Amino acid sequence: AQSVTQLGSHVSVSEGALVLLRCNYSSSVPPYLFWYVQYPNQGLQLLLKYTSAATLVKGINGFEAEFKKSETSFHLTKPSAHMSDAAEYFCAVITNNAGNMLTFGGGTRLMVKP
Amino acid sequence: NAGVMQNPRHLVRRRGQEARLRCSPMKGHSHVYWYRQLPEEGLKFMVYLQKENIIDESGMPKERFSAEFPKEGPSILRIQQVVRGDSAAYFCASSPSAASYEQYFGPGTRLTVT
Fold it and tell me: Is the pLDDT of residue B20 over 70?
C-alpha cells in the first residue's frame, strides 16, 4: 500500500523567506511523486513531478523538489516566498502496483506574511 | 486548449434528492478520475474510468454513488438520495493515456446538501 504524510498542516513564512514543505511517502515499489497547489475555491494545479528521472525536479513558479530515496522524502522548496504563493499544497504518489490513482497527503496550508 | 471542465461549479441539493456532476476532460484525453475533498479531510480517490469502461472503483461508496463515461459526452458522477455527509468538493481529473501519470484537474463542483 502507498501513503503520503505531509508534516505540518500549516506553515507560515515571511515574504522573501525560504519555503520548505515536507512530504514523506511510503511505497513498496518505486513511486511517481507530485506536488499540486490549490488556491481557494479552485482546482489543483500541478507544480512539479518526479517520474524516476533526475532526482532534483524544477517546477513552475520557482518551486523545486528533491527525491531522496534513502529518506523516502520529496520536500518542496522555494528560495524566496511571494505573497501569491499563499495556498494549500498537496503531495501525492502513484505506484505501478496501485493503479493510476493519486494518493494524497493531508495538505499543507502556506501563509505568507508581509 | 481548454482545460478540464466541470459543471455545475456549485450545486445545492436537499436531502434525498439526486446530484449529477459533469466532467469534460481535456481534448484528446480518454481517461477520467474522480476525487472527493471532504471538509477537514484530504483528497480521496473515488473512481477511474475510460470511455465506456470503469477501470477502478475501489474508492466509491458501495451505495448511492455511480459513475459513467459514455462514448459521447461528459463523464457523470451521480449521487442518489443525497445526505448531508455528501457535502464536499468533487474534482475530476483527466489524462491522455494509462501510461501518462500526469493528471490535470478541473475546478471542482462544490456540493452542498441542506
Answer: yes
